[in-house]
Amino acid sequence: MFDVDKIRKDFPIFKNDPGLVYFDSAATSFKPQCVIDAVNDFYTRHTANIHRGDYDNSFIVSKDYDDTRKVVSKLLHNDDPDQIVFTAGATASLNLVAYGYFLDHLKEGDVILLTLAEHASNILPWFEVAKKTKARIEYIPLNEDGTFNIDNYKECLDKYNVRAVSLPYVSNVLGYINPIKEICALAHEKGALVNADGAQAVPHIKVDVMDLDVDFLGFSAHKMLGPSGIGVLYAKKKLLEETTPMMNGGGANARFNKDGEVILKEIPVRFEAGTPNIEGVLGLKKACEYLMDLGMDNIRKHDDEIVRYLIGKLSTLDNVKIYNPRSECSIVAFNVEGIFAQDVGSYLNSLGIAVRTGNHCAKVIDNIIGTTETIRASVYLYNTKEEADKLYGAIRDVTLEKCIGAII
């Protein structure tokens, strides 16, 4: 049974800040005590570097670090832990794909397919790769509401020499789930590879990389109850073997000589030069275990229930425009008529309600929804209908004068 009241007791921030209503988990999530304990345990009991020390603490930490690949693989239904690379976050993962693999595999005349619903981290690297390789970027036309149009996608695959498809598994502004399995199957028929931004997907829905047959998938720990500064790149092993590490240094090479001959270590270690974010990896392990204990299907069901409830309440207000009334995953994007989004956010903050306002790093999505700025309320496994009621009540009663008063 999914017991939200019991779950909230696992998160000390609710005890330390009992009045806070937090609807910004798409930006970063709260951390359960087990994750905090894992990080604290590393610092207070087992501090050591990994794979470098011939003493107990190093052995203990090294094993825990390596075991995390197995735990992440289990979460992703991946059969080979060596296909899990630890990075600094989703942005680092997406950059590794763009620069480490595709920079060496694209040429003039090739096409990179994106959408206009991309986060900056899944569009800016491709701008640079296109410049350097003389490949071309094309955008898959989405439906008017921002949902994916499979027919338009097929048309792009037929029309262009597509070598790379890179898009979000779940939109970070609209909460729509793209049909990654079908996208991959169609791309592979044309000899193209698919890179999925999983930052908003992995925390909320069951992700089976084997069933999806996705080529690359990047995500961050901090959006899925884990620490900041640590992320994951899943990639098929044959593709990792053709990927160039973006960093070189200690821990990633087996040997080198003065003449510049370098032998890299095996995959995935060759991509993790230097001392890694050990405590972050150990916290990620506990976060994955926590999510699996709750069950990803249970988490999604709960998230959907709160989203549908919140959309239902906000839909009754004449002064509110909802941009994703059919949101499929954890996010509600809306605006209040006649009031700037950031002003509403400041007013909500004065009431102890935290939301995200602005463009959410998706700076070209205005081509779809007609605005650059929205209020984003993102829910997670610890949110309640009572909190949704508080947000609804605040939006129902908001006025421009109240917003100005909150700012000054």
Major sheet summary line: 7 strands, mixed
Structural class: alpha/beta
Radius of gyration: 22 Å
Alpha-carbon distance between the two ends: 46 Å
Low-confidence stretches: none
Based on DSSP secondary structure assignment, what is the total number of beta strands?
15
CATH architecture of the largest domain: 3-Layer(aba) Sandwich
CATH class of the largest domain: Alpha Beta
Oligomer: single chain
Strand line-up across the major sheet: 2-8-7-6-5-3-4
Average pLDDT metric: 95
Morphology call: globular
Total DSSP helices = 16
Query: Fraction of residues in helices?
Result: 40-55%
Strand content: 15-25%
Number of domains: 2
Q: The CATH topology of the largest domain is what?
A: Aspartate Aminotransferase, domain 2
CATH superfamily membership of the largest domain, which one? Type I PLP-dependent aspartate aminotransferase-like (Major domain)
